[in-house]
Amino acid sequence: MDRNDALHLVGDVVVERADPFDPESRTVELPRPGLPAEAVEAEDPLVPSSGSGLRGWVERFSGVLLRCGVPLLPVGLLAAIPTHFFVGRVDDTVVAAPALSDLLGGFALLLLPLMWLAYFTVSALPLVIGLAGTVAVTVYRATLGAPPRPAAVWRLVAYRLRALWLWFAAFGVITQALPLVLTTDRLGPAVAAPLAVGLTVLSTAVLTFTGLLGCVVLLERGNGRRRAAHLASMMPLSGLVAASLALTVLPRLAEAAWGGLASTAVSVPTVLLWAMAALVTYCQGRRAEGPVTSKSLYAALSAPEPD
């Protein structure tokens, strides 16, 4: 083979890989030698490798739990306060209405919708704190490998908290207002079992979707609802569904058996586990679309908010 043939072969490779729609394109960057893509994927501590399915999801979820369980304790303690005083206690506003009515007259009944609105807003705080804290701590630890500093974690998610809180409060109306409207006293005792199952399924579905939605709000910009629906269609959701079901059922069972304090003690870890499951599921959906790493997620969190 002579020199011209060798140059001709190199030229063919460059031309075939160049962008045909770019009139200024004359060359193309050829791949550099290094590790295979599969090896690079396998080393990421947060993002499951492409096509790994449930096994890859479980491996990444277990890794997040082992690495970040202790660093997430302050997040859990912070979420415990609104969890204990607000979650599952919307009935208190109904009970308080007659007392307010005695004090303020009929005008107090007009305050009841505002009381419920305030309740739904505040009751979303445990999920907001749990998901935002988990995303920030996990991405920080996976990227830098060092124990997360509270100030650095706060800076990563601070300006995204308002949008996350609004979304979660809106979906909280669905999961917490319906049990007040659809009761066995109104529908009859015959529908008690189907009603409980239906509300559990609805709450699980909402938590599954809002977990992905929350990750989109924290890590991306744009239409969060459509983006979350798209990611939900990219991979199996069994792990996140299981975590959402646990968050729906276990605190209720604990409260029925041992009271409100036990419900809080169960709610906080299940919120954190749900947040971990949501983040790993989001990462798996992003990986199904194309390359993504912990470093790229950290860069997305660190990007300044546009004016």
Model description:
The protein has one domain. The chain is globular and about 55 Å long. It has 307 residues and is mainly alpha-helical. It has helices at residues 3-17, 37-43, 53-68, 73-86, 91-104, 107-123, 125-144, 150-157, 161-181, 184-187, 192-219, 224-232, 238-258, 260-289, 294-302. The chain starts with a helix and ends in a 5-residue tail after the last helix. The protein is built from 15 helices and no strands.
Radius of gyration: 25 Å
Q: Using DSSP, what is the number of strands?
A: 0
Helix and strand string, N-terminal first? HHHHHHHHHHHHHHH
The global form is globular
Strand content: under 5%
Integer count of domains: 1
Contiguous helical run count: 15
Helical amount:
over 70%
Average pLDDT for all residues: 79
How many strands, what sense, and barrel or not for the largest sheet?
none
Enumerate the spans where pLDDT stays under 50 for 5 or more consecutive residues: 1-41, 90-101
The secondary-structure class comes to: mainly alpha
**N- to C-terminal distance:** 60 Å
Keywords: Membrane, Transmembrane, Transmembrane helix
Transmembrane segments: 64-87, 164-183, 195-219, 231-250, 256-280
Keywords:
mainly alpha, transmembrane helix, membrane, transmembrane
Topology:
Layout: H1 3-17, H2 37-43, H3 53-68, H4 73-86, H5 91-104, H6 107-123, H7 125-144, H8 150-157, H9 161-181, H10 184-187, H11 192-219, H12 224-232, H13 238-258, H14 260-289, H15 294-302
Helix pairs in contact: 3-14, 4-7, 4-14, 5-6, 6-9, 7-8, 7-9, 7-11, 7-14, 7-15, 9-11, 11-12, 11-13, 11-14, 13-14
Transmembrane segments: 64-87, 164-183, 195-219, 231-250, 256-280
Keywords: Membrane, Transmembrane, Transmembrane helix
